[in-house]
Amino acid sequence: MFQFKQFSVKQDKTAMKVGTDGVLLGSWAPIHHNPFSILDIGAGTGIIALMLAQRTHAEQIDALEIDEDAYEQAVENFESSPWGDRLFCFHAGLDEFIEEPEEEYDLIVSNPPFYSEDYKTDNEQRDLARFQDAMPFDEIVEAADLLLSDNGILAVIIPFREEEKFTALAKDFELYPIKITRVKGTSKSEIKRSLLAFSRNEVSEIEINELIIEIDRHVYTPEYIELTKDFYLKF
């Protein structure tokens, strides 16, 4: 069980545990346009959808999860949260979900699987959760093109090394970056992640910044504390 300020996340059934990437995206995803409907692609434990339920007044928050154990866990976490009436999880793959799109979403978020290296572990569930072949980037971008409302935003967290590739894919579908935050563990470490937000409307000036998580081991930067303080008990 992972306890946040306003909700808790059970994670005993799922291979992918609560991690910094999910918390970053859940805290960072732009909501200035007051989304009415939100879709979380590849929900895992449901943490990002839960964080967005806390941050927004969105009346419809849908999540999508293909792994049966993770799906059951997300449903359990949704039902035990204060926002159970606004959260719904579909047990389906993205390709299946977009076959007959019925909804448009004002915000689509995804913390996609992204180890594209050529190794697999003995844990098939964990591999499915972590490997890019489970959900290629182009599927996410294609889904966003189909499902985003006119003023909708797509927000993802991916490895920094994939940023150019993902941005180029998005451009093919006329989705343009509006905000980019590059994340480093410490000031001395390399950039590890990119938080990217896209819109159908090209902006003249993209908001670009950098976020450093720690000053020292378990000593967090003021910027990271500010971003996540509504969630972590320790801040």
TrEMBL record:
SUPFAM superfamilies assigned to the protein according to its UniProt record, in alphabetical order: S-adenosyl-L-methionine-dependent methyltransferases
Gene Ontology cellular component terms for the protein in this record: cytoplasm
EC number of the protein: 2.1.1.223
Compartment(s) of residence: Cytoplasm
GO molecular function, one term: tRNA (adenine-N6)-methyltransferase activity
Pfam families xref list: MTS
UniProt record, GO biological process: methylation; tRNA processing
Catalytic activity: adenosine(37) in tRNA1(Val) + S-adenosyl-L-methionine = N(6)-methyladenosine(37) in tRNA1(Val) + S-adenosyl-L-homocysteine + H(+)
Class of this enzyme: transferase
Domain Methyltransferase small: 37-158
Alphabetical UniProt keywords: Cytoplasm, Methyltransferase, S-adenosyl-L-methionine, Transferase, tRNA processing
Function: Specifically methylates the adenine in position 37 of tRNA(1)(Val) (anticodon cmo5UAC).
Family under the similarity heading: Belongs to the methyltransferase superfamily. tRNA (adenine-N(6)-)-methyltransferase family.
Official protein name in the record: tRNA1(Val) (adenine(37)-N6)-methyltransferase
Species in which this protein is naturally found: Flavobacterium defluvii
